[in-house]
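Narrative summary of target 7.
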Amino acid sequence: MGEGGVPQFEYDKSWPNVPAAWKAGGAVTAVSNDAQGNIWLMTRPKFHPASTPKDTIPPAILQFDAKGNFVQGWGGTSGPGYNWPQNEHGMSVDSKGFVWIVGNHDISTTNPDNAAKDTSARPPNDSQVLKFTKDG
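Modeled conformation, tokenized:
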């Protein structure tokens, strides 16, 4: 505890243990936990530089155990019956283990899809809430 009883935090460079083949660089936009003590991260794979080899970019959803060991990763592309958000924004894991994700309806110049400033041109994929099982 610090002065006045305020908690003090220390950066742990060993957490998480991301597979060595993956490059850092995508933004982490959400963190959640599940009933088993796992930690879930939502990233933005599209925020890696265009020159980054595709096989070194981690998926959008990453699951780690409490010790920081990588469990699984998935997401970042559309699948049967849904379109993946253009700009990943939020995620939550509910008490039944379902993973909920949303886009941020972004029209700024930081949007990796360079959506037009005209609000009628906002990416429709970001105007939805998606529910997944833990394995995507």
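The mean pLDDT is 84.
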